[in-house]
Design a protein that fits this description.
Blueprint lengths: L1 H7 L2 H32 L15 H15 L5 H16 L1 H27 L4 H5 L3
Helix pairs in contact: 1-2, 2-3, 2-4, 3-5
Length: about 130
């Protein structure tokens, strides 16, 4: 997306690219911290075995949800502002690329949300039992 926005070259596209970089840095850092908390509490980062952590790591769940909502572009989070500007910049140039980007973004958001929330919202398993409160 950044290359596309820089390629458009309009002021709105460049502002959008800058906001996208900043928003990405914040929500990605938050998600890495959540993974660190999960690893410290359970002793693993293997998403295939992590289950039922919502009762144990409540603060990590809240941070993961906020970061996921920002990544998804939900208001009032910074991800919304960057994506709003991005869509406006694309609307000024190419409607077909905008439509394609909306579809791809929706698919990426659903995949990201399922991966981010799976360790917390799945039924409790071994990782829940060994997690340190």
């Amino acid at each position: 997306m950044l290359v596309l926005l820089i390629g458009i070259g309009s002021e709105l596209a460049l502002v959008s690219a800058l906001l996208l970089i900043i928003a990405h840095a914040f929500y990605k850092a938050a998600l890495f911290m959540v993974v660190g908390n999960i690893d410290k509490a359970t002793g693993t980062r293997d998403i295939r075995v992590l289950r039922g952590l919502s009762g144990v790591l409540v603060l990590s769940l809240i941070v993961a949800i906020v970061a996921a909502l920002s990544k998804s572009g939900v208001p009032p989070f910074m991800g919304f502002l960057s994506k709003e500007y991005m869509y406006k910049a694309l609307l000024e140039t190419n409607t077909y690329v905008l439509i394609l980007l909306l579809v791809v973004n929706a698919l990426m958001v659903s995949l990201a949300l399922s991966l981010i929330l799976k360790p917390f919202l799945s039924k409790a398993g071994q990782s829940h039992k060994q997690a340190k409160r």
